[in-house]
Amino acid sequence: YDVLQENHKKARENYRALMEHDVKSVDFMGSIGAGKTTIVCELAKLLSKRGLRIGAIAGDVTGRDDFDRMVAAGVTAVNCNTGKECHLDAVMVNKALKELDLDAIDVLFVENVGNLVCPADFPLGTDYRAVVISVTEGDDMVRKHPDIFLHSDVAVLNKVGISDAVGVDPGILVKDYERLTGGVKKMVLCDAKSGNGLEEVAEALGLGVVG
Amino acid sequence: YDVLQENHKKARENYRALMEHDVKSVDFMGSIGAGKTTIVCELAKLLSKRGLRIGAIAGDVTGRDDFDRMVAAGVTAVNCNTGKECHLDAVMVNKALKELDLDAIDVLFVENVGNLVCPADFPLGTDYRAVVISVTEGDDMVRKHPDIFLHSDVAVLNKVGISDAVGVDPGILVKDYERLTGGVKKMVLCDAKSGNGLEEVAEALGLGVVG
Ligand SMILES: Nc1nc2c(ncn2[C@@H]2O[C@H](COP(=O)(O)OP(=O)(O)OP(=O)(O)O)[C@@H](O)[C@H]2O)c(=O)[nH]1
Ligand SMILES: Nc1nc2c(ncn2[C@@H]2O[C@H](COP(=O)(O)OP(=O)(O)OP(=O)(O)O)[C@@H](O)[C@H]2O)c(=O)[nH]1
Ligand SMILES: [Mg+2]
Ligand SMILES: [Mg+2]
Ligand SMILES: [Zn+2]
Ligand SMILES: [Zn+2]
């Protein structure tokens, strides 16, 4: 039983199911406490004002903290506890998708377990893969975890409103990311709690006003 | 080849080697960017003023960022890159110990990879296991990761100096930890960057002035 092969098989199944139902999807990976749930909830509120119907899969080791926050934000959510696994995989997402009516949503957000290592090796079958980090983890996050940034489409730096309080220069992370991606990709800056930069995050994920 | 069994075997070897050389040791687990390296460096400076000789193993996926910071703090450090693994294990530590002269140090700090899931299952053979989280990750860290807090001796809540800036009440985490450990253990609060609470961290790890 090759775990990665099985994962790829299920990821293709997930991708096909989402495509057939015309559902746009994003896998939000990132560090622990970087603001993934806050971004999912705030994006959901922004996009549902435009008439988009938002679904989500809340990946967590245990409990329903994130799931409850999503439901409170009006999202059609499914809770997915990973137990001993420190990452979601496509098999778990395949099961969770069966609990969602894909004809009733336009966008699916998947929140992965906070971890900047293994999620890189487990694509889930979503259109986009995003990595969320925040200024509070320090300015070395890109240098220390090149793999996950190279295996994703969009990088988001959150909580930029408190960069001074934590003494971190967002410019260092932006430059590291630009260098890692050969000057091709720009890190998106936001402060999801206050809503600053949220529109840029939506645009980077193909969910902007014209998207 | 049972990974956990092999880990336990090597952990016992590590424990014996450290005991024979009278070296006190701590495995610092915790979330990404919580302040593990800052705590290791600041504790090392505090303890070396008391004549203790400090060694360390810097566990990271890749690079030498943390290793360089430890060396700059006067620590006799060994760098240990884990590659695809999102946690250190006792086999890697066993190899790293061979690069250290255990007769030349009194205390060994091991900094694990930032991750609140798998390190719980991979004891390294140190005397103490500590989990470091920070207020900037939110107030739900204990609720969401009970396992690692139950598989460790000391819990440290760092960056408490900026709790107001991030709008997090440290009291919630302290209560969650007390409840999880049946009222037996107290979470240690500190702000390693400013040095507040560092003495309490040392004491909780058996490295206090009378320790
Ligand atoms: N100042 C500030 N705080 C934020 C921002 N976004 C999130 N937070 C706070 O950061 C903490 C963690 O946010 P979450 O949204 O739970 O982060 P997460 O990445 O989903 O966390 P896990 O799922 O536990 O890995 C909470 O206390 C949030 O209020 C932001 O843009 N600015
Ligand atoms: N305000 C404040 N910032 C802190 C404190 N401790 C660490 N930091 C900052 O938090 C960021 C991360 O600190 P590190 O010591 O690198 O954290 P770490 O846990 O070793 O990070 P990784 O090894 O990458 O998982 C850096 O910008 C530090 O300056 C603290 O007590 N207060
Ligand atoms: Mg979350
Ligand atoms: Mg570190
Ligand atoms: Zn994992
Ligand atoms: Zn792991």
List the helices and strands and how they pair.
The structure is a homodimer of 211-residue chains.
Chain A: H1 3-20, E1 24-30, H2 36-48, E2 54-60, H3 65-72, E3 76-81, H4 90-97, E4 107-111, E5 128-134, H5 141-144, H6 146-150, E6 154-158, H7 163-166, H8 170-180, E7 188-189, H9 198-204
Helix pairs in contact in A: 1-4, 2-9
Describe, in plain words, how this protein is organized in 3D.
2 copies of one chain form a homodimer. Chain A is built from 9 helices and 7 strands, in the order H-E-H-E-H-E-H-E-E-H-H-E-H-H-E-H. The mean pLDDT of chain A is 97. Chain A has one domain: 3-Layer(aba) Sandwich (Rossmann fold), CATH 3.40.50. Chain A starts with a helix and ends in a 7-residue tail after the last helix. In chain A, helix 1 runs parallel beside helix 4. In chain A, helix 3 links the parallel strand 2 and strand 3. The first copy, chain A, is of the alpha/beta class and 211 residues long. In chain A, strands 3-2-4-1-5-6-7 form a 7-stranded parallel β-sheet, with helices on both faces. Chain A is globular, with a radius of gyration of 16 Å. The structure holds guanosine-5'-triphosphate (2 copies), magnesium ion (2 copies) and zinc ion (ZN) (2 copies). One magnesium ion binds next to helix 2 of chain A. One magnesium ion binds next to helix 2 of chain B.
